[in-house]
Amino acid sequence: FETAEPIPGPSVDRLARVARETGTVVVYPLYEKDGNTLYNTAAVLGPDGRLLGKYRKMSIPQILRTVTSGETPADERFFFAPGNLGFPVFDTPFGVRLGVLICYDRHFPEAARILGLKGAHLVVVPTATYRDWIREVWEVELRGHAVANMFYVGGVNKVGPDVGGPAGRSYFGSAVFIDPRGNVIGRAGDKADEILYADIDPRACDDTRDLWGFFKFRRPDAYGEILGLA
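Given the sequence above, the corresponding structure tokens read:
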């Protein structure tokens, strides 16, 4: 709990300087303290260092038993409150509209769909995951979100041993960039930190949405049933 910081705060201020010096948009995940409440948050900083806004992780797992596969419990609600800012989309000076999902959020297609309907061109997904079964579906899930919503996805995962964590735990990295048609246009390895580059063209999102019509031919009038299903 001692590592939690307000936004703005010391770490965000440092990253704001980096954003200004490099002229880039920075998505910076951190442990946020807001009064007496703690959140898993990503601060979004513009190329001038200005805070464009923040996203608070919405889906906080609380798995309190060991499952048959032997995986240990995960009680993130001990550390984080569920997000309360919805699913914002941030306008950047580069003409790219940016959304964020954090880690476990990526398992929920509803979250990705909201960002798509709000006009996101790129959704960044900062993640810290290590489980073998998740490694098998990591890229599949992200490609599915890209195709269903016709936006770019930048999936980022921690890589290497969990320093200070449980013995033997290692994160599998494998960051990816995916285009609006589900093609992988950049992939990092699973052993060490890397810098991954990809070209982002918002027109590719618009063109694909016009061509495929997934948003145009939705049936919102028929989807209300989902709200009543638990």
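The longest strand covers residues 26-34. Try to locate this feature in the token string yourself.
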